[in-house]
Design brief:
- The protein has 194 residues and is α/β, with parallel strands linked by helices.
- It has 2 domains: 1-27 and 104-189, 3-Layer(aba) Sandwich (Rossmann fold), CATH 3.40.50.300; 40-100, no CATH class.
- It contains 9 helices and 7 strands.
- It has helices spanning 14-23, 31-41, 43-53, 65-72, 76-99, 132-143, 147-155, 160-163, 179-191; strands at residues 2-7, 28-30, 58-59, 62-63, 105-109, 124-129, 169-172.
- The strands form 2 sheets. Strands 2-5-1-6-7 form a 5-stranded parallel beta sheet, sandwiched between helices. Strands 3-4 form a two-stranded antiparallel ribbon.
- A hairpin with a 2-residue loop joins β3 (58-59) and β4.
- The protein is globular.
- The model has no long low-confidence stretch (mean pLDDT 93).
Length: 194
């Protein structure tokens, strides 16, 4: 079974590519969704985050995200510590997910596969790209966020140029190049490797 990472900057359309793959019968694991779920439910993550930030990092319903965001905003050391608590458990959840699939390939959609070094555990990497103005429009529509905060979030991620050397395939999600055709070509190329 080939393990294939799907990555790209915020608003590039990684999830859209994932949904197309799912519609074609491919198993897709969404790391961000899983990280949110595990942050709310995993007792080890809860214990580690509570040790780091105190009991107010959790509410009765789960992780206190605004509190956590405020604590790690502008603090790279704390942000890395939070990543070191959550990311290994998300990676394990992906491995468990992959082990339960009966498919020649399994996909993992995540924004920071390359930055965290997780890309090294994949057989292939797919980079989803889109022009910055389109990405900003998408994020505004999705999150109702202002342009300054979106650009700040983008600034914390690697650029497409930094990620490209690690990618085996690039899918351009600019509204001009048909996505379905590119995803079909990706599957065709992966079939020859599986």
């Amino acid at each position: 079974m080939l393990k294939v990472g799907i990555t790209g900057g915020i608003g590039s359309g990684k999830s859209m590519v994932g949904k197309i793959l799912e519609s074609m019968g491919c198993p897709v694991f969404y790391s961000d969704d899983q990280a949110k779920l595990l942050s709310d439910t995993d007792p080890n993550i809860r214990k580690d985050l509570t040790q780091l930030f105190g009991p107010e990092v959790y509410t009765e319903t789960g992780l206190n995200r605004p509190f956590l965001a405020e604590k790690i905003f502008g603090n790279e050391v704390l942000r890395q510590q939070v990543n070191q608590i959550i990311h290994p458990r998300v990676r394990q959840a992906f491995n468990d997910f992959a082990a339960n699939q009966d498919s020649p390939y399994v996909f993992n959609e995540a924004a920071i596969l390359i930055e965290t070094g997780a890309h090294e555990s994949f057989d292939s990497m797919v980079l989803v790209t889109a022009p910055e103005d389109i990405r900003i429009e998408r994020i505004q529509a999705r999150d109702s966020a202002d342009v300054a905060s979106i650009k700040q979030r983008m600034g914390k991620q690697w650029t497409d140029d930094q990620k490209r050397p690690y990618a085996d395939y690039e899918i351009i999600n600019d509204g001009k190049n048909p996505l379905l055709k590119q995803v079909e070509k990706l599957i065709f190329n992966l079939q020859s490797k599986a």
